[in-house]
Write a structure and sequence with these properties.
heterodimer, A: 4-stranded antiparallel sheet, about 30% helix, B: mainly beta, 10-stranded mixed sheet, 9-stranded mixed sheet
């Protein structure tokens, strides 16, 4: 099903990206490419720079790009504010989204789109303040609702499987597959667990370590097996293809 | 009597809280409606009394101790029989350089539960009007009042409401003051006197913009087992100076809580909060929380990543803050 959407066109291209936050260099020359309809998994240990990369692609002004460029559908977006990137079709599901006190989720969804995606769990969440006292699972559902409302072309999921039990992780993966992957939306799936990959079966799996991509592999199972057996250190010996 | 919803939604100047149509509907539906110094309408509410204050002064001698001196203008509402709709009073300034000097009195009889919506506003932005209002609200034993007080002014107006609440035993007050379009100068003063087992919940929601705002609210817990909550939500936008002094004083076993929060949106804004608790009974429990902060960058970025512009994101956060 998904294959028919796969076009050769590159959706996101990152060239030699170097990024600093609070004076410290976090990304040290990242190159990455995602084609239309592709699912790319990005693995890496804690503090390797995965979340930083997600935030930089989405335009968080906290991070300073010191070198390199980001292209989206062939257009340079490196200096573009986050709202313009969102309008172009770039969406980020946050790992730990902040609470917005006094603003109901339904209010935000009404503001950002006419689209009203619904899941069985979404009803009660709608009338609650965004992310305030949400459980781990509720935060993920809230993020998914917002993402789907935006009708994106590329979604970055930052640790979407963290804080979820196996059943919930499966459920979330099912929604991502049905509502996004099967409809040709490109996905950058950031995880350090890898559990969700068997549900979403990425086209490429890459490993980010110390601010650099050090591995690029088609077979995600092979990467997961290696990491499980030898840890991320073994990945350093792998040459990106 | 058809009542209209006068709830406002957006604190951004330029988008009026009440549209022209809403204002017209509200005024037409008002039980007491005064424009400038002229009485436009008084509706009859069976079993209850609604009069201009000077007329009430003449008619009911017992009121004189509450009015103090003979009033020039304003309303007197005496709720003697239960009504199942909100009583609405509207006082507008519609002409340039009008100076209103109002004395309002609201009396709720024993055991009566009532809701009142009071809207005071300038119909245009640059009328340079003055609105002085002295008000007294008397809640007799076992009565209950939910009082929504909406203000909306022009950029060059001067406004000074001074309200006194007297809560007899077992009475209950919910008072919500909302001013999202402040005048150039606003001096808001309230005092509350509580008696045995009475409870009050007061909230003041003010959006400062090109204005100097002074707030003084005092609660005197002099009734055994009385309870009071005071909640302030203040937003400092461009060129606004807000100074708020809130006080709860307990002289007997009672409980009170002050919750004062300020949000600075612009660097030209200033907010000063002075919460004060005075306790004269060892069994009374008074608490307070006060904070002033700016908008969280993380929240702002989060909303911008959902496609909202910086301004839209700030407005949404401010609206949430004021509604909270």
């Amino acid at each position: 099903m998904r294959i028919i959407y796969k076009a050769v066109k590159t959706l996101l291209k990152i060239e030699n990206l170097r990024v600093k936050a609070d004076g410290k260099e976090i990304l040290k020359g990242v190159n990455l490419q995602i084609k239309k309809g592709e699912v790319l998994a990005l693995l890496g240990s804690n503090g390797s720079g995965k979340s930083c990369l997600a935030q930089v692609i989405s335009g968080n002004p906290k991070y300073k790009v010191t070198r390199g460029r980001i292209f989206f559908e062939g257009r340079k977006i490196t200096g573009l504010p986050p709202e313009k990137r969102a309008k172009l079709g770039l969406a980020l599901a946050w790992q730990s989204p902040p609470a917005v006190k006094g603003v109901k989720l339904s209010q935000l969804l009404k503001k950002i789109s006419q689209r009203r995606p619904e899941f069985p769990e979404s009803g009660e969440l709608m009338e609650r303040e965004i992310n305030l006292d949400f459980s781990g699972g509720e935060k993920k559902i809230s993020e998914l609702l917002q993402i789907l409302s935006l009708n994106p072309k590329l979604v970055i999921f930052d640790e979407i499987d963290s804080g979820l039990d196996i059943k919930r992780a499966e459920k979330v993966a099912g929604i991502i597959k049905k509502e996004l992957v099967d409809k040709g939306v490109s996905i950058l799936l950031i995880t350090h667990w890898g559990q969700i990959l068997s549900h979403l079966r990425p086209d490429w799996t890459q490993v980010l370590l110390d601010g650099r991509i050090i591995c690029k592999e088609r077979d995600f199972k092979k990467v997961l097996r290696t990491i499980k057996k030898y840890g991320y250190e073994k990945c350093k010996k792998c040459k990106p293809r | 009597m058809v009542t209209k919803n006068v709830k406002n939604v957006n604190p951004v100047r330029g988008q009026r809280v009440l549209t022209k149509m809403q204002r017209k509907q509200t005024s037409n539906g008002a039980h007491f409606w005064q424009v400038d110094h002229k009485l436009k309408n008084i509706s009859e509410v069976p079993g209850n009394v609604i009069l201009p204050s000077p007329q009430a002064w003449q008619k009911f001698k017992w009121l004189r101790k509450y009015f103090g001196e003979k009033p020039k203008e304003g309303y007197f509402i005496w709720v003697k029989r239960q009504v199942d709709f909100p009583l609405i009073a509207c006082i507008n300034i519609a002409s340039p350089k009008i100076s209103q000097d109002l004395t309002n009195l609201l009396v709720i009889e024993k055991g009566i539960k009532v809701k009142a919506n009071v809207v005071c506003s300038a119909v245009k932005n640059n009328l340079c009007g003055t609105h002085r209002a002295k008000g007294k609200l008397l809640l007799k034993s076992g009565s209950s009042l939910e009082y929504n007080h909406f203000h909306q002014w022009g950029e060059k107006d001067f406004v000074s409401p001074d309200y006194e609440f007297i809560l007899e035993k077992n009475s209950r007050l919910v008072y919500a003051y909302k001013n999202l379009f402040p005048p150039q100068n606003l001096l808001l003063k309230t005092t509350l006197q509580s008696n045995e087992n009475s409870s009050s919940n007061q909230s003041f929601v003010i959006n400062g913009l090109n204005s100097r705002i002074g707030i003084s609210d005092k609660v005197n817990l002099s009734g055994f087992n009385s309870q009071a909550i005071v909640r302030l939500r203040l937003v400092g936008r461009k060129n606004s100076q807000i100074e708020a002094a809130s006080q709860i004083k307990a002289t007997v076993l009672s409980g009170g809580h002050l919750d004062c929060q300020g949000l600075l949106v612009d660097r030209t804004a200033e907010i000063s909060l002075t919460p004060k608790l005075i306790c004269q009974d060892k069994n009374a429990r008074l608490t307070h929380e006060a904070s002033i902060g700016k908008i969280s960058e993380e929240e702002l970025t989060y909303l911008r990543m959902r496609g909202l512009s910086e301004k839209e994101a700030i407005d949404l956060i401010v609206t949430g803050f004021l509604e909270k």
